[in-house]
Amino acid sequence: MRVSEQISVLVVDDEPIIRAGLSAILDSQADITVAGTADDGEEAVEACARLRPDVLLMDIRMPRRDGLWALAELGRRGLLGQGRSRVLMLTTFDLDAYVDDALAAGASGFLLKNSSYEELTGAVRAAAAGHSALSPAVTQRIIEGHLSGRRQPSDQELARLGDLTEREVDVLRLIRDGLSNAEIAERLVVSLHTVKTHVSRVLMKTGCQSRAQAAVLARNTLS
């Protein structure tokens, strides 16, 4: 999150009523402001490049260019990540393919449209702070997916772990398990500052743009 008095959000949805409703909820919060809206992925990318919001709250299913296309294009243009914008994907569908594709592409979170106001605003704040923001239903899907071991890791995924130290692999595994920085520090008996340094290096070395993306990578590659 960039230094500012408020968290700026770009709301992206093809349904005007949904855009208006989400904007009203977010604007009602003292620390959140809606910087703009967009109705498809292409418009979202251009608006993000222009407005540089802290967070994009973006529907995954839209006509013309959808949310997954926009997420990939934002990454290609270097608009995602620390000091730039974070993306929360919003949808009525909690299908595994959407979760994997969105998080693997760098989304900071994935929320269902039936999430509560508290979950929505909390997720925006978490994403702006650089944390993962996943609804309980999606978190459970990720855990179940890891435990089921439903596919073998690709050579490209394994190669992304090649530069990690043993301690950084430990940190990545704990990120996968959903631990916060403070919980990781307690588990590894190190300082919070040390954990933050490890997390930053893990993201940099693996090319991940968020903790959520790192968690998906770890789920697919680490035992």
Describe what you observe in this structure.
The protein is an alpha/beta fold and 223 residues long. It contains eleven helices and six strands. A six-stranded parallel β-sheet has the order 2-1-3-4-5-6, with helices on both faces. Strand 4, helix 4 and strand 5 form a beta-alpha-beta unit. The chain is globular, with a radius of gyration of 17 Å. The mean pLDDT is 85.
Q: Secondary structure elements and their pairing?
A:
Elements: E1 7-12, H1 16-27, E2 32-38, H2 41-51, E3 55-59, H3 67-76, E4 86-91, H4 96-104, E5 109-112, H5 117-128, E6 133-134, H6 136-148, H7 155-159, H8 166-176, H9 181-188, H10 192-206, H11 211-221
Helix pairs in contact: 2-3, 4-11, 8-10, 8-11, 9-10
> What does the largest sheet look like?
6 strands, parallel
Number of helices: 11
The number of distinct β-strands equals 6
Shape summary: globular
Summed up, what is this model?
Keywords: DNA-binding, Phosphoprotein, Transcription, Transcription regulation. With 223 residues, the protein is of the alpha/beta class.
Task: Identify the notable features of this structure and list them briefly.
single chain; 223 residues; alpha/beta; six-stranded parallel beta sheet; 13% strand
